[in-house]
Amino acid sequence: MTFSPEIEAFISNYVKDLNDDSAAIFAGAGLSIPAGYVNWKELLNDLAKELGLDINLESDLISIAQYHVNENGGNKSGIIRKILEEFTQEAKQSENHNIIARLPIGSIWTTNYDQLIEQALRNEKKNIDVKFKEQQLLFTKPKREVVIYKMHGDVSEPGSAIITKQDYEQYFQTHETFINALRGELITKTFLFLGFSFTDPNLDYVLSRLHLRHGAEKRQHYCFIKKHRLGDSQNPDQEAFNYNSIKQNLFINDLKRFNIKCLLVEDYEVITNILKEIEFRYNKQSVFISGSAEIYKPYSKEIALGFIHKISEVLIKNDFKIVNGFGYGIGSSVINGALETIYSNPERYSETQLTIKPFPQFKSGGKELEDLWTEYRTNMISKCGVSIFVFGNKNSEEIADGVLKEFEIACSKNIICIPIASTEYASRIIYNKILEDPKKYYESPDEVLPYLQILSDFENTIDYQLETLKKLLRTLK
Predict the structure, then answer these.
(1) Does the domain formed by 284-476 have CATH 3.40.50.450?
(2) Would you state the pLDDT for residue 311?
(3) Average pLDDT, the chain
(4) Helix/strand/coil (H/E/C) assignment for every residue in the chain
(5) Cis peptide before 201 (omega within 30 of 0)
(6) Which residues, at least 6 apart from 87, have a Cβ–Cβ distance to it below 8 Å?
(7) What is the mean pLDDT of residues 67-86?
């Protein structure tokens, strides 16, 4: 999909922030609505009717909640019941939730009461630390991977939800630690605001004070805004369209005070495509090396292992991350090549660029070993954007079916496959299969195939093949 220059620049910058562990998400109600949950107007509609008001004529929604509490003698039971009714029903997380859960984002902030983000992260087997009360900020969950800051509370304790005008007015006293934590993260991390309207008084409070304290020296943040379109529900005629367009432009310019750049999209579905592209580009920097070897023909064992060693070196030096299942006969060379390069310049390279996941050797959890291996392979490969295939034999010259299975998994995940067919066996089979229908495997096969051809020829020197691999990886980036 083609994106505007502004969105292209955002994707590139946000992927860099992901790599630097400095990316964060702020999720508003708009993220949960596609999953089936209500927006604020729908949540408060019945309460407004009780007050004799038409929710569609009201814009100050926190006052509606306050009026309802006032008219019931300060009792919030009606609001609590409404939160429980709306946010305890079964709902399946959206594709946006799932993409966010797969990305390496360490901080997620939200004003939502629901638990869709938590569900998506648990599905990815991530260890999460949820904070929705002040005292929870005092403790750190061991080995946490993601912290979810729920500024307005959680459906599990609806009585403490921030929803009325009084709740907001007292927030800087009752939740001062949340405000301080958010202020610190806005300084040190790049936020992407999703499904957020920027009408929340708490966020406005924090952004205003950051603006006053730091002036122009603020971190760049981003949000998505849907363009107004003539004829949609908000713009039934030209007059409404003109008015809303002017107002939107003013709103966009106002957010620039806080260094929040608005990215205009034609439809909300485009946001999903942008998130997919972010995930794809981030994953492309992780390379899965697939292969096993009992014998190394047409190379000698020494030359073959040196070849694999240098492949790891090329990947590390070009800022890729390596993922490997410690394949028989090649795993040690993958590790040695990567670590030697990393330790040669630890200020430039990092051990985080190497992930080794040896396969389980015994059945467990009620699963047969073959099923465990399939699950294990899928999990490893799905975290990558590129797969390199070398050798692929076992028991003398028998083809390693595990390498072929890894190729099938990579294809099913739309991962770019690079067979180094000069190493023969499974890598040659994969290369020949790609040649049958290159368009099935690459967006631009005419760009990729000349490189693969060089990598398929044993007569080409190791150095020439390594230089070709480097150029191919650069092309794919």
Answers:
(1) yes
(2) 97
(3) 89
(4) CCCCHHHHHHHHHHHHHHHCCCEEEEECHHHHHHHCCCCHHHHHHHHHHHCCCCHHHCCCHHHHHHHHHHHCCCCCHHHHHHHHHHHCCCCCCCHHHHHHHHCCCCEEEECCCCCHHHHHHHHCCCCEEEECCHHHHHCCCCCCCEEEEECCCCCCCHHHCCCCHHHHHHHHHHCHHHHHHHHHHHHHCEEEEECCCCCCHHHHHHHHHHHHHHCCCCCCEEEEEECCCCCCCCCCCHHHHHHHHHHHHHHHHHHHHHCEEEEEECCCHHHHHHHHHHHHHHHCCEEEEEEECCCCCCCCHHHHHHHHHHHHHHHHHCCCEEEECCCCCCHHHHHHHHHHHHHHCCCCCCHHHEEECCCCCCCECCECHHHHHHHHHHHHHHCCCEEEEEECEECCCEECHHHHHHHHHHHHCCCEEEECHHHCCHHHHHHHHHHHCHHHCCCCHHHHHHHHHHHCCCCCCHHHHHHHHHHHHHHHC
(5) no
(6) 37, 113, 114, 155
(7) 84
467: burial class by Cβ within 10 Å (0-12, 13-18, 19+)? Answer: middle
**Active-site choice (97, 152, 175, 221):** 152
Q: Do domains 5-37+91-280 and 284-476 have the same CATH topology?
A: yes
Active site residue 152: yes
**What is the band of 200 on the pLDDT scale with cuts at 50, 70, 90?**
low
| Local confidence band at 202 (pLDDT 50, 70, 90 cut-offs) | low
Percent of the chain with pLDDT over 70: 95
Q: What ranges do the domains of the chain cover? A: 5-37+91-280, 284-476
Residue 215 has pLDDT above 60, yes or no: no
| CATH numeric code, 5-37+91-280 | 3.40.50.1220
Q: Are 171 and 202 in contact (CB under 8 A)?
A: yes
| Predicted local distance difference test score (pLDDT) of residue 376 | 79
> Which residues are bridge partners to 353 per DSSP?
none
